[in-house]
Amino acid sequence: MVPERFTPVLAELAPLAERFAERGHRLHLVGGxxxxxxxxxxxxxxxxxxxxxxxxxxxxxxxxxxxxxxxxQGERFGTIGAQRRVADPDxxxxxxxxxxxRSEAYTDDSRKPHVTFADDVEADxxxxxxxxxxxxxxxTAGGEPSLVDPFGGAADLVTRTLRTPLxxxxxxxxxxxRMLRAARFVxxxxxxxxxxxxxTVRALAPRLKIVSAERIRDELDKLITVDHPTAGLWFLVDTxxxxxxxxxxxxxxxxxxxxxxxxxxxxxxxxxxENVRPSHxxxxxxxxxxxxxxxxxxxxxxxGKPRTRGYQxxxxxxxxxxxxxxxxxxxxxxxxxxxxxxxxxxxxALVALHLRFHTYRLGWSDSAVRRYVRDAGPLLHELxxxxxxxxxxxxxxxxxTLSRRMDELEQRIDELxxxxxxxxxxxxxxxxxxxxxxxxxPGPVVGAALDALLEIxxxxxxxxxxxxxxxxxxxFREQRIAGRxxxxx
Length: 489
Hints:
The chain is α+β, with helices and mostly antiparallel strands. The protein contains 23 helices and 13 strands. It is 50% helix and 10% strand. The longest helix has 25 residues, at 396-420.
């Protein structure tokens, strides 16, 4: 008997299933969709994956008149996409992917799979990544839909057992990215790999190099944003997968961190990542922040420590300038993983700034707050979250002290923001006003003047039009005396 929670999805798909059946084709709900429904996930949040014995042109014919939009960019791989409005007027349109039964595999040096279509759903399921994703629900058999589970995926889901439908060597050779997906299921679903699976990953880890950087990047994003990614991250390190695409990660494992004496740098890094909690766990009065970007910044924030490790008598191990070195390393690695320019700039900036809070140990002057806000720019909330989460000490007194100082900083930011619009700190005069007041043409003198005015704004705040023009005159007189700029025309 099909669980009641399947009813809304089955009712939604019934008209489409009839269209396939009328044309002599079978249609199955498949893969992660079945898995998530068996786990009781909200059907409104699930994109629908289907598989069929129909070939792509026949899939398109069945969709016409039912779907609001159809796209066929994946037709050569057997996939037709569609979108359709659902009954709930407040819900977004549903996305569907319908794929011809297929088997696919990579050759030894290929980054793209070779696809072969099949007529039997079990052949399709056999080539899927894990048994928990190798289940299907037939929609066109007549009567109540029936579960197709040739590899025991439902039982593995209950026991949290991670296994592949075929031998792990076959499955991971077919698509090496599946080894990264294993890390995600270990973390997100708290699954335990069967004997032999982990050893196979260790043996085949170098094969990950044939997978495109974009696919690896997307899988890393999925792992880093599960609620508790630590077990999956350790899987990457322990199996040698991380060495293939993020070698800086295992390099942190042996570096002793004198600040967090109970942890090495890698253990500390994973603790910081865990401390960055998703929005649904945040207090309602906390400002929103970009969860994915902040988690990735936590992953990279101490990446520069191995290269900056030193020793200083009386202080022990040191990591001077690991923030700056780490920012450069982060940029190179993110570029290699084909992250967007926006992501690269944001994550690199957070790594570079993650120690800034600790440079202010004697309280927060107005000028210090302005500089902190100016340097953080649009990443202010992400930087504050990262700073708080970087405290993993077991010393409760130290933890309370850091939290209190962070509270004080945020309070100072709020107070100054009310008075000075901190989010848009800029000189009180713009370039045109500087040129008109000084009687100079566009050139280096204008840029230098604006830099000087910005320093005044950061140090002293808003001074008013009359006073800032007097300061500009004084600055320009000093420049003329020093012979840097000609007299005004």
